[in-house]
Amino acid sequence: MLYQTFRDHDIYARRYFYPLISDFPIYRGLPSARRENLPVAHAAAQQVLCLPIFPALTDGMLDRIVGIIADCLS
Predict the structure, then answer these.
(1) Could you report the per-residue pLDDT of 28-48, keeping only the tens digit for each?
(2) What are the start-end ranges of the H helices in the chain?
(3) Taking the complete model, does pTM exceed 0.85, yes or no?
(4) Which of 6, 56, 62, 63 has its CB surrounded by the most CB atoms within 10 Å?
(5) Residue 26 in this model has a pLDDT that exceeds 90
(6) CB neighbours of 38 closer than 8 A, spacing ≥ 6?
(7) Cα angle vertex 34, ends 31, 37, to 5°?
(8) How far out from the chain centre does Cα 27 lie?
């Protein structure tokens, strides 16, 4: 929900742990890469976002990002 809301406002956050290495074709067939063995990793891949951070990020941009997060939480 937050990810799409950012996209709708032209703020490009990205999913931080996506895709999981265990989803890469070379690892996908390994028993240790099975989804049921990695429930926390899969949850993190779906929930953790990397918020925008760059040298030109202004206080106004930051306020806008924080405002969008606050709106999503309320």
Answers:
(1) 999 999 999 999 999 999 889
(2) 2-8, 25-28, 39-47, 59-73
(3) no
(4) 6
(5) yes
(6) 20, 22
(7) 100
(8) 22
